[in-house]
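Researcher: Quick one. two chains, 575 residues in total.
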Amino acid sequence: MLLSIDASLIDWSRAQFALTAIYHWLFVPLTLGLGVIIGIMETIYVLKGDEFWRRVVKFWMKLFGINFAIGVATGLILEFEFGTNWSNYSWIVGDIFGAPLAIEGIVAFFMEATFIAIMFFGWEKVSRNFHLASTWLTVIGATISAWWILVANAWMQHPVGMEFNPETVRNEMVSFAAVAFSPTAVVKFFHTVSSGWITGSVFVVGVSCWFLLRRREVKFAKASMAVGTAFGLAACFFVMVSGDSSGINVAKEQPMKLASFEGLYDGSEHAPFTIVGPLKIPNMLTFLATHKHTAFVPGINDLLNGGYKLADGSTALSAEQKMFRGRRAMTSFAAFRQANKQGNMALAAVAEKNLQNDMPYFGYGRIQQRAELVPPVNLVFWSFRVMIGLGMLFVLLFLVLTYLQMKRKLNDYPIILYIGVWCIPLVYICSEAGWICAEVGRQPWAIQDLLPVNAAVSSLQTSSVQLTFFIFLAVFTLLLIAEIRIMCRAIQKGPEMSGETKI
Amino acid sequence: MTGVGHMLRSVLSFYRDGFRRMTTGRILWKIILIKLFVIFIVLRIFFFKPVMSGLSPQQKQTRVATAVLSAP
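Model:
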């Protein structure tokens, strides 16, 4: 049965995981971004002591609560899928993946669950300062949760701090610090979290634009927009800096992903950055990938053919050479298990040594054709352009709105306000495009170079995976409709400018 | 009343008052409970049984090793 895993099972299992992760990712960025904005607004309230700011905070907190409630626990489904659909993967990653996820669960539960209750129920019960501290601790808790999730994800993109134990068939952690603070995890955290800040900013700005277009709650909308645009501009700066670091990291650790971002088949020492079609910025890709004016950036064909010089002076292996070493690793692994079973420890030691020698190419042993090593280039290429293009639009939006606010001309340009409203769905498209770049761009690997998806997947009936895919689709669609309706109703109702705002 | 008892009463009344004063929160809690029922009862029990639960560590090792070593 294990020999009969077909492509459709892998594709449906991947589609199911992608659907769940993409749905979960609709809620996380707004929680991260709107949380910080609420924290800033409440800090202004505590510093100024102005009741107006308290009501501003309560309105956005209500929307934060709706988003949080609909999104909560959707990530748990991903953990079910690991055990059911990706059981080989779950076993092989061992405690490396489990440790960050367990820490995330504990931190998320204790920090978020404790302080979010004070955020919503504590306005009349605790002091201003204590309430402010609770708000920030909720935000910090959510952000720390994101750290551990991204540590787990980064390990799949760049596995470090572990050794493969052929006896237990598991990767075992040898350095917690190497896993928790790997350069891939650090840049991924800052890039992902700051992109969530942009989502929060665009959301606040977009809703404020809607109020201004309706000529409702003008003072509230302008005050919210001032915070949203200022924080949005700061977030854009962080996204650009962390995106630059991420580019360097991807070029070093996942060059096939970078080549797919750019649709670059033949590399060069002066690789251009493609905007769209024939529009290219000369030399830009080389600079972004290496921070040098002249350095070879391999294309997809170079990565498959090998033969070019690597940064350490060695020569890159071809796909076939890697596949050969991968098969040799598999042979050593089988020999180790056989020798171990027979109690021949001397032979097992030799086989283990050979295995560790070829271990960096272990996953290539499951690759049959070099074409399998290339991710879906068109999807990744266009997702990257959507992400960058929309990111630029948001920078422009924040700059224009800041200028109009300074000149007190916000109401003179309704077209800008309309664009602000329409940027709300666009920021979600941008965020999901980023997820596609990161996750589709690393195919075929579940764990980079060590475990392709065809070895990670559980041997299930394709029809059962299809069934759960459509169940999820139905459940997620219903929940999303519920969220959008409740959210729109709360926005239409507007801030309660007198009395108690409740959730 | 002891200090701990007083604190527990305060915490309980904090949550009781908070839940009583909820407006939108009521429907959100209904959605959360339905969602948790679907996730933990329907999906977990009927659709997402961990495929290796019930196997010994030895059996799991053999199963995964066979899967990894078998031709794709």
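Chain B touches chain A at residues 14-15, 17-19, 21-25, 27-29, 31-32, 35-36, 38-39, 43-44, 47-53, 57, 60-61, 63-72 (CB under 8 Å).
Researcher: Thanks, that's what I needed.
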